[in-house]
């Protein structure tokens, strides 16, 4: 007797031959259905729920649920039905990418239940995905085993090329990264990993929207993954490469490397791949866009510097293609980096023979810092110093403890090279960010690791003396907690909103902080601590931090766009920070006003409300009708709503970003830079892509020199902590950046 339509006791269950045949045919070749088949067979055999659960190795509620569903609905009841609000299909690559991106601070790694709730999955389903991909959350080993055919183990993958078409054909080309001395600094922060995961996921999914059936047929014609013939002239110049042009590039750049090609649909991937390429077929549970984002996360783990450049270009390609006509295939090929690619270097000249000893030591430290680790031969090549000079300088730096030897590297000829790297505990610095909402205090080591972090919430009415006492006492506590390492403290860097008198170390009536007036912050803090103390404008400090520890560390020219309660900027030009005559360089609000023709009756620039991004976003969101139960809308609430897809919140942020971007255009033309870093408290990871996409579009569309210069817009690796960490980096910069005295006695 069939079980359908009526609930029965275990002793009453029975299956006809027809029922058995239907069940076996339904479960044949489907491992995920075998457990449900076994549950029904156990019921028909008279086993109790407990007996069946023990025999199969699952929970009793699971056995009960599947018995009830089969009894009520037959085979239809055994089909998987996701719970309300959960996706019908799990993109396993997306799950793993989210796992590696990590949770919001202060939590460091995802627990299974927390990530399952975040993704809207069941805890059991998430556990199975982790098991299939051999993921161990919290482990220092970031190796991932892709369940492709054949399986692919990825430890240090480098994304080489990606392509996709609306008809479902797609590929990803990757290889194990070439060992080149793993960088020890500039590691991706939690904020950066989350931002890049969210941003890249969004743009990759939008880059190739489903076209019509006619679009699909048109795209499918011709050679595999060739750009469609007769593309419309209205399509803007995209960094896409036809198949015939890919082959020689692949042959030249990837020769001798073990290439892996993951394919989706009926495709061979790029034409004429190297003979050593291994093809892997992706399962239906693994999406193309999510796989690209997963490779991005893995790259950020092991080679952050190179990954940032490549992923920014990949995101720009995706943004451009999202605006192209339906049916346009997606193409991205990694540009040559590293081997054989000349780097721009600042050429230093000796003006004062007495300064050369110190200068050359700093030049060696700077070279090692930027590269992460270098052998003595590589140091000589990069600095232009003689091998004898390099040997003497590195011997001194090893003796004093600034450098330490890394693992030996074989180059195939002669003795193995011994790379040298900075020793993190060789020096420390204190960084303090004085902000109208919060004072942030950090203890940072020479490699940029934050050893101690403390915060003090403040208001516009907070007394400056009490704030100063907290800074001094917190500094003493941090130094005491560091133990013997506290003796290696170089000094204290303070970042504060402008305007400042940097020469006198005085805050000049900072906005939103009426009680501070003209406060001699540097002198007072130096008196209390008896430590070297420097004062920088917050945007300038953030710029130094990005050059020393973050996204700008290998660049000699870039602009940092710092967005918080206000909007400011800092510039790193010709290998050094640019402060201006008074230390107040970077105020670009007036540039924005002129770009938008917002002028006073006298012809001067008006105040642009959008140059206070946080308050402007909140005001626009409220005007659009966004509300909260308690009646108060905060910037954090607007960002959370935008992350959840609320169109009012998204539009409020985009509108402000468009205005800020016009000021960024003026700075691009003014400084002629090709790198712009965006960060600050107003740019949390969940909405960073909204700012970056608008700014990137503007600085590559409106500047006069746009035909000869592409501006890369990237996210700050220090993000909300940029000013505090940058203030500490300013101490390192003053101590170790190579400078020479001119005959007038000033630094060059």
Automatic annotation (TrEMBL):
One Pfam assignment: HTH_29
Region of interest called Disordered, as start-end residue ranges on this chain: 207-234
InterPro entries assigned: ATPase_NBD (IPR043129), Homeodomain-like_sf (IPR009057), ROK (IPR000600), WH-like_DNA-bd_sf (IPR036388), WH_DNA-bd_sf (IPR036390)
Domain of life of the source: Bacteria
Similarity-based family: Belongs to the ROK (NagC/XylR) family.
UniProt name for this protein: ROK family protein
Organism: Streptomyces spinosisporus
Phylogenetic placement of the source organism: Bacteria, Bacillati, Actinomycetota, Actinomycetes, Kitasatosporales
């Amino acid at each position: 007797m069939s079980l359908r339509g009526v609930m029965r006791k275990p002793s009453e269950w029975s299956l006809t031959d027809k029922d058995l045949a239907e069940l076996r045919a339904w479960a044949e070749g489907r491992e995920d259905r075998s457990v449900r088949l076994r549950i029904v067979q156990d019921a028909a055999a008279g086993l109790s729920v407990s007996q069946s659960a023990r025999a199969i190795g699952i929970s009793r509620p699971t056995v009960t649920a599947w018995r009830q569903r089969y009894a009520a609905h037959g085979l239809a009841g055994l089909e998987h039905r996701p719970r309300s609000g959960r996706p019908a299909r799990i993109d396993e690559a997306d799950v793993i990418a989210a796992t590696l991106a990590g949770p919001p601070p202060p939590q460091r790694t995802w627990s299974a239940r927390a990530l399952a709730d975040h993704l809207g999955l069941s805890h059991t389903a998430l556990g199975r995905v982790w098991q299939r991909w051999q993921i161990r959350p919290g482990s220092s080993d970031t190796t991932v085993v892709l369940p492709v055919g054949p399986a692919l183990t990825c430890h240090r993958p480098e994304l080489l090329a990606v392509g996709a078409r609306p008809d479902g054909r797609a590929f990803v080309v990757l290889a194990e990264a070439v060992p080149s001395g793993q960088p020890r600094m500039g590691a991706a922060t939690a904020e950066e990993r989350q931002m890049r995961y969210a941003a890249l996921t969004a743009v990759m999914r939008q880059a190739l929207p489903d076209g019509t059936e006619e679009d699909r047929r048109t795209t499918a014609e011709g050679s595999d993954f060739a750009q469609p013939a007769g593309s419309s002239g209205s399509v803007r110049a995209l960094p896409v490469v036809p198949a015939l042009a890919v082959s020689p590039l692949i042959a030249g750049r990837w020769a001798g490397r073990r290439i892996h090609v993951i394919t989706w649909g009926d495709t061979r991937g790029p034409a004429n791949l190297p003979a050593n390429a291994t093809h892997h077929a992706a399962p239906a549970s693994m999406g193309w866009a999510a796989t690209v984002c997963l490779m991005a996360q893995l790259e950020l783990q092991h080679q952050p510097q190179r990954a940032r450049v490549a992923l920014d270009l990949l995101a720009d390609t995706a943004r451009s293609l999202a605006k192209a006509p339906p049916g346009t295939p997606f193409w991205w090929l990694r540009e040559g980096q590293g081997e054989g690619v000349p780097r721009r270097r600042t050429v230093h000249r000796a003006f004062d023979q007495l300064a050369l000893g110190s200068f050359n030591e700093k030049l060696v430290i700077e070279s090692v810092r930027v590269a992460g680790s270098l052998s003595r031969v590589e140091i000589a090549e990069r600095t232009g110093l003689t091998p004898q000079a390099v040997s003497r300088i590195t011997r001194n730096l090893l003796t004093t403890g600034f450098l330490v030897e890394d693992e030996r590297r074989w180059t195939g000829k002669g003795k193995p090279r011994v790379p040298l790297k900075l020793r993190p505990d060789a020096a420390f610095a204190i960084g303090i960010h004085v902000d109208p909402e919060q004072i942030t205090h950090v203890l940072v080591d020479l490699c940029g690791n934050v050893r101690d972090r403390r915060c003090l919430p403040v208001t516009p009415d907070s007394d400056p003396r009490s704030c100063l006492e907290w800074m001094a006492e917190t500094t003493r506590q941090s130094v005491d907690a560091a133990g013997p390492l506290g003796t290696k403290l170089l000094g204290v860097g303070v970042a504060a909103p402008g305007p400042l008198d940097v020469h006198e170390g005085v805050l000049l009536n900072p906005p939103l902080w009426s009680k501070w007036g003209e406060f001699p912050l540097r002198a007072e803090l130096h008196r209390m601590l008896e430590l070297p103390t420097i004062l920088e404008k917050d945007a300038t400090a953030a710029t130094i931090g990005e050059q020393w520890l973050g996204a700008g560390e290998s660049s000699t020219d870039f602009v940092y766009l710092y967005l918080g309660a206000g909007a400011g900027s800092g510039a790193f030009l010709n290998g050094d920070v640019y402060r201006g005559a008074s230390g107040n360089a970077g105020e670009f609000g007036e540039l924005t006003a002129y770009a938008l023709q917002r002028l006073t009756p006298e012809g001067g620039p008006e105040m642009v409300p959008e140059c206070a991004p946080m308050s402007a976003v909140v005001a626009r969101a409220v005007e659009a009708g966004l509300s909260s139960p308690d009646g108060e809308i905060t910037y954090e609430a607007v960002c959370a709503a935008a992350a959840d897809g609320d169109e009012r919140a998204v539009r409020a942020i985009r509108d402000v970003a468009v205005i800020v971007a016009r000021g960024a255009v003026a700075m691009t033309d003014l400084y002629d830079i090709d790198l712009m870093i965006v960060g600050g408290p107003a740019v949390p990871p969940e909405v960073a892509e909204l700012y970056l996409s608008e700014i990137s579009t503007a600085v590559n569309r409106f500047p006069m020199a746009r035909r000869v210069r592409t501006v890369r817009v990237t996210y700050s690796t220090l993000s909300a902590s940029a000013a505090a960490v940058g203030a500490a980096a300013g101490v390192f910069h003053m101590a170790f950046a190579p400078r020479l005295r001119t005959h007038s006695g000033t630094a060059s």
